[in-house]
User: What shape does this take?
Amino acid sequence: MINALRGMKDTISPTSEIYAHIIETCTKIAQNYGFSFIETPILEETALFKRSVGESSDIVGKEMYQFIDKGENDVCLRPEGTAGVVRAFIQQKFDKAGGVRRFFYHGPMFRYERPQKGRLRQFHQFGAETFGEGSVREDATIILMLKAIFESLGIGYTLEINSLGCPACMPLYKLKLVQFLETLDGLCEDCQRRKLTNPIRVLDCKNEHCKILLADAPLIVEHLCSTCKEDFATLRSILDQFNVAYVVNPKLVRGLDYYSKTAFEFVSNEIGAQSAIAGGGRYDRLVEFLDGKPTFGVGFAMGIERLMELVKMPEVKREGYYIGALCEEAKSVVYNLVIQKRETSKVLTQYEPKSLKSHLSNADKNYVKFCVCIGEDELSKGVVWVKDLESKEEKMIKLENF
Ligand code: HAM
Assistant: This one.
């Protein structure tokens, strides 16, 4: 027997209904906020992710589904959605055209991680990206949009925010941090490596000993330039104004290298260790890193599988018809009726004649509102037998009136 690969899952009804409900809810809200749908390829050149997500990140360093294709191209399955959207944005010359553009997307992402609860190798994201808008109000808007999505899905969360500074303040802070790291003895192997490649990643190391060593580390929020400081204050005041509860986590650095200024994560305490349900931030240099004209960027992505654990589905209402034949002679009448009725309603059927009991049980299992049956008696009188499965009322209706 061949099973799905480790860390990859089939999504089948009723779970698939939760998936569809999440996508539908997010799509509607994203459209209200002015975002339009974008679909980019799942397979991209490996260089795209090396130059955006960053060679020092775990995603690029350890987790890519990377291979050489039959044309000798170095390609990989996308580990996240932002890089592909930025590539498309530049390829369409939207950077040169200028103006503000907003996109949303959803689909599978691939990371060769150690699978565990809430951590898959193929998982799905819903994400959104805004280009060309430098105002911190857009960062706030994106957080408000996520708040609206979570409220609509009935999901509770904690929001953590931080500012990662800009080219004016981050390099100076990094120097100070590295000087501090040099004084420490006993950092874990990952941190020793990160100290050289991307020192700020040391700040969110999960190793208990490192956490103790880093308790007095200098923090970026205390080293922001005046512009970043002001923007971070504006962000916080907008969140206060709209009653969005948040905590400033000065050690929140995100696992992807492209961020500057705002960084945020939505966390749930109901789904175990893999608690991040959405993450994002500003990436004002990314378009430039990928050879585009410098363009502001800010966005987020949510992990749909993690949301699926939390979503409270709206109550399902009985809907549509189940139509079945009680005898051989009624088969074609039933078939014609099914095809006709599907022009306006959801209709389920079984092609072979069955007993009334069996049809009623199928109708019930499929959660339709009406069970309709046709047998010899109904055929001779030109009627159909209908049962309303909610009110339990039964009646005969003339075929032409049905
Ligand atoms: P990320 O934080 O790497 O950000 O991923 C976003 C979300 O995807 C996470 O918060 C989590 O819910 C989900 N996720 C990540 N890895 C897994 C996994 N192995 N299994 C299940 N769910 C997972 C990004 O991907 C950025 N592109 C977000 C962004 C968009 N920043 C700006 N624009």
In short: The two ends are 47 Å apart (CA to CA). The chain has a mean pLDDT of 96.
